[in-house]
Specification:
The protein is an alpha+beta fold and 97 residues long. It has one domain: 3-Layer(aba) Sandwich (Glutaredoxin). Helices cover 39% and strands 18% of the residues. The chain contains four helices and four strands; from the N terminus they run βαβαββαα. It has helices at 13-24, 39-49, 67-75, 79-84; strands at residues 4-8, 31-34, 56-59, 62-65. A four-stranded mixed beta sheet has the order 2-1-3-4, with helices on both faces. A hairpin with a 2-residue loop joins strand 3 (56-59) and strand 4. It is globular and about 35 Å long. Bound molecules: glutathione. Glutathione binds at residues 9, 12-14, 53-55, 66-68.
Length: 97
Amino acid sequence: MAAVLMYSTASCPFCVLAERLLRARGVADITKIWVDLEPARRSEMIERTGRRTVPQIYIGERHVGGYDDLVVLDRAGELLPLLAGAPHADAASGATL
Ligand SMILES: N[C@@H](CCC(=O)N[C@@H](CS)C(=O)NCC(=O)O)C(=O)O
């Protein structure tokens, strides 16, 4: 299964929802980065993702986005293959990665 990383804060309902969905899809391990405790990691998140809100979720090398993006991916039937490590089409280039 692909590695899952989530930038989070302790008081973040969307982070709870994202974790719940990932667990429901069989994800056992989520690497959490607590940006409320580590300001440098918040800067890293913003620089890396271009976004300021949490959660910000990575599955493997792919930046999925926040909870709403995760739901879109799930409803499109793309979350499980991504978690399984299957190649995916890059939205920007259309290339299969
Ligand atoms: N549409 C976003 C909403 C995310 C959101 O609003 N997150 C809140 C925390 S639950 C947030 O980051 N607020 C700004 C902040 O904490 O600096 C998503 O689904 O992930």
